[in-house]
Amino acid sequence: MAAIRVELLTYGSSVYELAVQLRYEVLRQPLGLVLDPADMATDSEEAMFGAFLKHDLVGCLHLRTLNAEQVKMRQVAVKADLRGQGVGALMVKASEMWAAENGFREIVLNARAVVIPFYLGLGYEAFGGPFEEVGIPHRAMRKKLI
User: Fold this and answer.
1) Predicted model pTM
2) Which of 30, 33, 36, 59 has the greatest CB tally within 10 Å of its CB?
């Protein structure tokens, strides 16, 4: 596979629109849900990352500032045919570097139960009990940044 590169996305750009479509296809459509405008309400205030294979957007990830020390990772999506090939890990690592460089000390997220092992493998820890979000089981997770 050719090299994957991860870049910050610009809100409102054509690539941002592709990322919105990818979020729908990966995160909502399989559950029979629509991408609600509320899901995008804070996009303009978030750091958005895109993973590219050549010129094609193949993954996206958002970081929402919670406070001076903490960001929340959300809307992590990778095209189905590229899952398990390191795209998600590259995006997570790039977002962690960005967060640390911007003074944040911790990343938190709500992981779907099926991807908890992925985040555990990247050094995240689960905390609190299981809960339901968008109709499926989740766990809260976090990672301290160096």
Assistant:
1) 0.94
2) 59
